[in-house]
Design brief:
alpha+beta; two-stranded antiparallel ribbon; 48% helix; elongated
Length: 54
């Protein structure tokens, strides 16, 4: 499988709703960094923190 973003061989495959997208090491790491800084992840972290103190 080829990386979704470049011509490199995919090292990882992400699947959702029956569609698989390949990512090379470099683009996998870039996507993880983007997700780590996302507002969505911050909201999930906040919910987990709130739930764990109850």
């Amino acid at each position: 499988m080829q990386c979704h973003y470049c011509d490199d061989e995919a090292a990882y495959g992400a699947e959702k709703d029956g569609i698989t997208v390949g990512l090379c090491d470099r683009h996998f790491r870039e996507r993880l960094e983007e997700l780590a800084d996302s507002e969505e992840l911050a909201a999930i972290r906040e919910q987990i923190d709130l739930d764990s103190t109850d």
